[in-house]
Q: What sequence folds into this?
């Protein structure tokens, strides 16, 4: 374990003005706070924060960050408090440590929701001070290096979280060395066989091509030196996870990869970068499609370099990165390379943003719009886990998007309003589908139309968190508007039936008594079945005592589905905003008019059928099986269609109406045999109509109640097996 003086010396190497007393005080405080605590490996727990601090000294960070690393687990795992750290060290250091403390008391159902809430807290702390992120990444790196000591059931979860969140986050901050190590450590845990296989092949390749890398380095160095350019050329073998990801992306075997080795050329100036590029492209042929200039167009994380691939010495493909030494420092250490975070003495707040940090803060603002922890987590992964493509508006504005982005993503990146109104796109002047995959350098023009709303299906097409969140908001707003319209009709009809005059002005004064903030909220709640229309009537007219028996009988005569007291039937309708799962159950209680829903006449529907709901203003929702011919009557009115799904409790079976037509031989006992089959199969005959088609056959239209489609098919099969039955078919409306 590193000694106190050794830590001070590590910091002093890059910061001669370090506050030695502050570092000593933090070292002693953390060691005493953790006391006899042990890690899973059996080592003293204090060894962990000490190693985290050592990682950060390699990044040459300021005193406050090193102290925060030493203290980062004290509030969470010891008796230390934020107030005590503020008093002994400083409020700034206290804020850093608190930003790294997980939320312990979370009353959340799923581990994913808890993970999301802790991530949300961390990102909000990062938005205030990016040094929180640097400590967290170092903390995660040391935890991954010692993952073998963690219980088996926890390792894969930690590794997956690292691969999904922390490695991409390090990459977005430009810290490529840390990102690659985090990816490799996660890959080794999640896919040990693939990791070992690639590692073994890399080792064999190194033994066979031991002199090849050195030979290419020499030839590149000589070619550049002949032009009078000072440069340092180094070659390196790519890491296992990087190779595996390329194999997956290109669907190729290891043997088909031709760029296992990469070469880096470091020069002093930007002009020298382009001079070296000229030397390389003059001497060796360029591989088409493998040139990228991140010097003139830097990435969002401040990364700058020229990438090119040539067919070099020995007919080998050679992948090159050409950059200045300053660019190299930023490429290796990312946001930590900015002088802003060095020599601040632990007291100077951030005074300017790097591009990477500015991007992160904007991203956090967008992520904060997620309506649930799981949605927040999904958006975070979408924003972090993508390579980039660069596209342009017709006016030349640069838009940076993830790989596989579409014109829909582009539209939302320009402005949310543009995305919501998008109806088409031109890519490089040609009309193209909105689902086209954008390429580097594409010029994209979005065609819009007023009154357009984004289809819900777009959510499965887009790849950016911003686009997905905006589409969800628009879908929810459309669904809410639809329910509000239905709810208004229900309330209006209920008030008229109660013998009162419908008045929105009077209804608006009763919103508070219904625990809602607006009239639209009331309508939407009634439309979704969350509020009884009777309660709305009573709120406006307290003297009203409820519907009369003859009103109930009239509704039943109209064919509304009636349930016993306390029972409910449920469907699922996508797009409701109150549930993190985009499906929310709607109880149907037709007789008391909370949500008027009925099954289609002449056929009904049963669980197992794919179903749709047809909205009839002033009437309610009618449920049809998708195969019903009656749906043809609504083909020109798509706004009335609701995508509904069954949500039936398996341990609480309910019967559903279905109609069948049986043609039986006209002989004594035939009806008894048909009724026996239905009864033995636990079906319930609810209505029966008979008519004679001829002297030999009788046609029976039978309404029965069944549990689901399998139950119905069993009855139909048994009926067809009876000798007295000529044919039996289900009626679909």
A:
């Amino acid at each position: 374990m590193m000694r106190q003086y050794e830590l001070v010396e590590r910091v002093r190497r890059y910061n001669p003005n370090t506050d030695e007393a502050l570092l000593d005080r933090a070292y002693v405080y953390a060691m005493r706070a953790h006391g006899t605590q042990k890690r899973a490996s059996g080592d003293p727990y204090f060894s962990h924060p000490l190693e985290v601090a050592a990682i950060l000294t390699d990044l040459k960070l300021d005193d406050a960050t090193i102290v925060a690393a030493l203290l980062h687990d004290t509030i969470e795992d010891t008796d230390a408090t934020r107030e005590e750290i503020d008093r002994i060290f400083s409020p700034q250091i206290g804020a850093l440590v608190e930003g790294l403390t997980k939320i312990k008391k979370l009353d959340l159902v799923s581990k994913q929701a808890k993970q999301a809430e802790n991530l949300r807290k961390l990102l909000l702390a990062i938005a205030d001070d990016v040094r929180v992120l640097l400590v967290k990444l170092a903390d995660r790196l040391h935890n991954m290096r010692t993952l073998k000591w963690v219980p088996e059931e926890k390792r894969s979860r930690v590794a997956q979280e690292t691969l999904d969140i922390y490695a991409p986050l390090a990459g977005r901050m430009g810290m490529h060395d840390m990102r690659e190590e985090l990816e490799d450590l996660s890959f080794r845990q999640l896919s040990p066989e693939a990791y070992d296989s690639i590692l073994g092949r890399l080792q064999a390749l190194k033994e066979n091509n031991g002199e090849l890398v050195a030979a290419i380095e020499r030839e590149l160095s000589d070619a550049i030196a002949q032009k009078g350019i000072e440069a340092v050329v180094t070659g390196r073998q790519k890491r296992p996870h990087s190779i595996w990801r390329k194999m997956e992306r290109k669907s190729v075997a290891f043997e088909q990869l031709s760029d296992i080795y990469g070469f880096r050329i470091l020069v002093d100036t930007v002009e020298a970068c382009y001079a070296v590029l000229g030397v390389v492209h003059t001497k060796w042929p360029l591989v088409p499609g493998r040139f990228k200039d991140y010097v003139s167009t830097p990435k969002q994380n401040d990364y700058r370099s020229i990438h090119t691939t040539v067919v070099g010495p020995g007919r080998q493909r050679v992948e090159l990165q050409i950059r200045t030494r300053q660019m190299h420092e930023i490429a290796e250490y990312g946001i930590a390379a900015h002088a802003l975070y060095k020599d601040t003495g632990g007291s100077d707040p951030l005074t300017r943003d790097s591009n990477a940090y500015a991007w992160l803060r904007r991203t956090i603002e967008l992520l904060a719009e997620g309506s649930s922890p799981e949605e927040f987590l999904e958006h975070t992964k979408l924003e972090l886990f993508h390579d980039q493509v660069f596209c342009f508006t017709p006016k030349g504005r640069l838009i940076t998007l993830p790989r596989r982005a579409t014109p829909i993503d582009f539209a939302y990146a320009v402005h949310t309003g543009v995305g919501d109104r998008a109806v088409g796109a031109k890519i490089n002047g040609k009309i193209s589908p909105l689902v086209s995959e954008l390429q580097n350098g594409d010029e994209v023009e979005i065609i819009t139309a007023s009154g357009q709303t984004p289809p819900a299906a777009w959510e499965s097409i887009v790849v950016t968190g911003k686009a997905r969140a905006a589409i969800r908001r628009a879908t929810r707003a459309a669904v809410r508007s639809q329910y509000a319209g239905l709810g208004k009709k229900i309330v209006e009809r209920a008030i008229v039936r109660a013998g009162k005059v419908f008045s929105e002005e009077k209804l608006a004064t009763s919103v508070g008594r219904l625990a809602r903030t607006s009239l639209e909220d009331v309508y939407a709640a009634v439309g979704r079945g969350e509020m009884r229309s009777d309660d709305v009537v009573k709120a406006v007219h307290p003297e009203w005592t409820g519907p009369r028996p003859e009103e109930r009988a009239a509704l039943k005569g109209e064919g509304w589905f009636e349930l016993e007291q306390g029972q409910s039937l449920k469907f699922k309708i996508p797009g409701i905003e109150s549930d993190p799962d985009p499906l929310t159950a709607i109880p149907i209680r037709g007789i008391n008019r909370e949500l008027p829903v009925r099954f289609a006449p002449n056929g009904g529907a049963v669980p197992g059928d794919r179903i749709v709901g047809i909205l009839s203003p002033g009437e309610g929702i009618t449920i049809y099986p998708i195969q019903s011919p009656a749906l043809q009557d609504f083909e020109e009115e798509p706004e009335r269609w609701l995508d509904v799904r069954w949500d039936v409790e398996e341990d609480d079976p309910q019967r559903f109406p279905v109609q069948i037509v049986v043609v039986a031989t006209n002989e004594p006992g035939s009806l008894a045999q048909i009724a026996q089959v239905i009864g033995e199969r636990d079906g319930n005959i609810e209505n029966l109509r008979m008519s004679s088609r001829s002297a030999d056959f009788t046609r029976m239209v039978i309404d029965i109640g069944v549990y689901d489609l399998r139950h119905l098919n069993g009855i139909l099969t048994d009926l067809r097996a009876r000798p007295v039955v000529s044919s039996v078919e289900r009626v679909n409306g």
